[in-house]
Specification:
With 243 residues, this protein is of the alpha+beta class. The protein has 4 helices and 11 strands.
Length: 243
């Protein structure tokens, strides 16, 4: 079971071959077998960005003030061109060419009783950009889930947190209503899923403050890759299906 796992190994191509377990040797052996089932593929080449047209060339120019003194100058247009570099193809996607990434998983602590009683009954592990793993308490709900990062678990009142997050959402919507030049992401046609993070401390991170929206992603569907362990350790995060 992943809850008892201490090591996770995943391929560095597309993340499709994932194995966890208690020890590295055992996990690597199962991961090598998993490669034949998952068949990870290397990333697709990135299409080059079309080059913008160059501005019209300018001639050297001297700028003078009202008294005729030189106060600045321009050398004219300078064009800098970088080399394109060589395009190197990925090696064949056979097991011996597929790199592995190993992540050490921390043990899961006991869930605080008050939060467990409110539905936050399971710890989940969140991987950061550089492989560091943090924890969050998870409550699954009909339209998604709510995560409470381990760094702020002691700041959450499970009896009021839902209403507090709703109030933060209402404040964010009121701000957009008063600022019509800013598009409201939840009103876009593509917005079928919302992943919103909320801060619970003041601007300097020292004192408890009313929840406020810190960021969000509105998209066509939930993507687990959007959960950044480096950030979510210190926030509450809600994912909701909008339709």
């Amino acid at each position: 079971m992943l809850d008892d796992a201490r090591v996770l190994v995943v391929d560095a191509f597309d993340g499709s071959a994932v194995v966890s377990g208690a020890g590295l040797d055992e996990v690597l052996a199962r991961w090598e077998a998993e490669l034949f089932r998952a068949k990870p593929r290397p990333p697709r080449p990135v299409e080059p960005t079309p080059r913008k047209p160059s501005p019209a060339p300018g001639e050297p120019e001297t700028f003078k003030d009202e008294e005729g003194r030189t106060v600045g100058f321009s050398t004219g247009t300078i064009t800098v061109t970088a080399g394109g570099g060589a395009s190197i193809e990925w090696p064949a996607a056979v097991p011996r060419n597929i790199p592995a990434v190993m992540v050490e998983l921390p043990p899961l602590p006991e869930v605080p009783l008050a939060l467990a009683a409110a539905g936050f009954s399971k710890w989940v592990r969140l991987v950061g950009q550089h492989g560091l793993v943090s924890l969050a308490l998870c409550r699954r709900e009909e339209q998604g889930f709510t995560l409470v990062g381990q760094g702020i678990v002691d700041l959450v009142d499970p009896t009021t947190i839902e209403a507090e997050l709703d109030a933060a959402d209402a404040q964010e919507r009121a701000f957009h209503a008063a600022t019509p030049e800013l598009p409201a992401p939840w009103d876009q046609d593509f917005a079928a899923s919302a992943l919103v993070s909320y801060g619970l401390v003041d601007a300097v991170g020292r004192q408890r403050a009313p929840a406020r929206v810190r960021g969000g992603q509105w998209s066509g569907g939930f993507d687990a890759g959007s959960l950044d362990g480096d950030q979510l350790e210190w926030v509450v995060c809600r994912q909701r299906r909008l339709r």
